[in-house]
Design brief:
71% of the residues lie in helices and 2% in strands. The protein is built from 19 helices and 2 strands. The longest helix has 28 residues, at 357-384. 37% of the residues are buried.
Length: 390
């Protein structure tokens, strides 16, 4: 109940803190939730346990040793793998290894994940002059849908949060393309799964040459093309990041157990909700003008995710990047469809309908918050409460 109580406390307190104090409170929220990792004991065999062992391994080295061939040939499989294709993460881990406690690793990861998510919500709300309720409900949705324990995996969720944030700056705020692609490449050095996301981003560049429907059809064929692509990449495994990419991809292609797949179906339905929010908002000319290419990338990632629906690791992990990319669009949805005055909630109606589609989607979003907090999150958290040491 430790994590659940913390999320409920910070999530619902966000509705009470208004005005000029809201920005400061959101910072406190991010630090407060991330700080739980200072009391989190990594179970043996967990991803975080292996990361801590790696920090111990790196601590006695010099920077030149970290980037030498010594680590590539290490007997430690994890160290060897990161030395081959995750040099950016290895460098960051090396710096963190000198901090007083290894718990700074998940704490910093939490700051990035929760921080970038909340920052995107706040900045988007500020841009469209969203009310306090919009920012608060979007924040609560975000906190509910991010699996706290997934942050202990460090690399994947951190890379996805960074990718989504950069993609917004790239495609919505129209930052320098060369600089953005350089940042994408750096993020791929944290986790190689970002390479696929970069490929999908590059497909946006050919939208004038190839219609998005045709591109979507090609993405659906990715699973059939995978073996051929891996066979080609197999000739280039002397290149570190390609070797790591092929090795990790072969693991991700394994199917989950029937029970896990059933659990994935629930998360899949939530991802469908993400798409419905996009499709509903995309009817607006203003929305299309601002989020056009960003929304198209969101759709490409959604199609790619469901193309690999039988590969549990790919399917479930990609929900994270879809969630991060949904956040600014969710702010737009709440702002334009729900108005709150006191204890009264009103919905924007279209075409004189008695019940608006927006009101239905709003109710579904509330249901997802409840299910995520009290069932999905609790499914994991019931087993990790014993991992906290105070």
């Amino acid at each position: 109940m430790i994590v659940l109580t913390t999320l409920l406390f910070y999530g619902f307190l966000a509705f009470l803190v208004k005005g000029r104090y809201q920005k400061a409170y959101l910072l406190v929220l991010v630090i407060g939730i991330s700080a739980l990792y200072f009391w989190y004991f990594a179970p043996e065999g967990s991803d975080l346990y292996r990361h801590y062992n790696m920090l111990q391994y790196l601590k006695g080295m010099s920077l030149s040793q970290v980037f030498s061939k010594t680590l590539v040939n290490s007997n430690d499989v994890l160290i060897s793998m990161y030395a081959e294709g995750a040099r950016v993460y290895l460098f960051l881990a090396y710096i963190i290894s000198f901090l007083p406690t290894y718990n700074f690793l998940p704490f910093i990861s939490g700051l990035i994940v929760y921080g970038l998510g909340v920052l995107r919500i706040y900045k988007e709300g500020e841009r469209i002059k969203a009310d306090h309720f919009t920012i608060s409900i979007t924040t609560l949705f975000f906190l509910a849908c991010v699996d706290f324990r997934s942050i202990s995996g460090i690399r994947n969720i951190t890379a996805y949060a960074l990718f989504a944030y950069i993609a917004y700056e790239d495609l919505v705020n129209k930052r320098n393309k060369v600089f953005c692609f350089l940042l994408y490449a750096i993020v791929a050095g944290i986790h190689n799964s970002v390479i696929i996301l970069i490929v999908l981003r590059m497909l946006i560049l050919i939208k004038k040459l190839l219609h998005p429907i045709a591109v979507s059809a090609i993405i659906l064929l990715f699973p059939m093309m995978a073996n051929g692509v891996f066979a080609i990449l197999g000739h280039f495994t002397n290149i570190g990041f390609i070797s790591l990419f092929v090795r990790k991809a072969s693991i991700y292609f394994a199917e989950g157990s029937p029970y896990i797949r059933l659990f994935a179906i629930v998360r899949g339905l939530i991802m469908v909700f993400y798409l419905l929010i996009y499709l509903y908002c995309n009817k607006s000319v203003d929305f299309k003008k601002r989020y056009g290419e960003f929304g198209l990338l969101f759709v490409y990632i959604f199609i790619y995710t469901f193309a690999f629906r039988f590969q549990y690791d790919i399917f479930m992990r990609n929900e994270l990047v879809l969630l991060f990319m949904l956040l600014p669009m969710l702010v737009y949805f709440y702002h334009n469809n729900i108005k709150v005055k006191g204890l009264t909630i009103t919905f924007t109606k279209m075409n004189n309908r008695t019940i608006s589609v927006g009101s239905i989607l709003f109710c579904i979003s509330i249901l997802i918050i409840v299910l995520s907090l009290f069932f999905y999150q609790r499914y994991f958290y019931g087993s990790i409460n014993e991992c906290f040491v105070f």
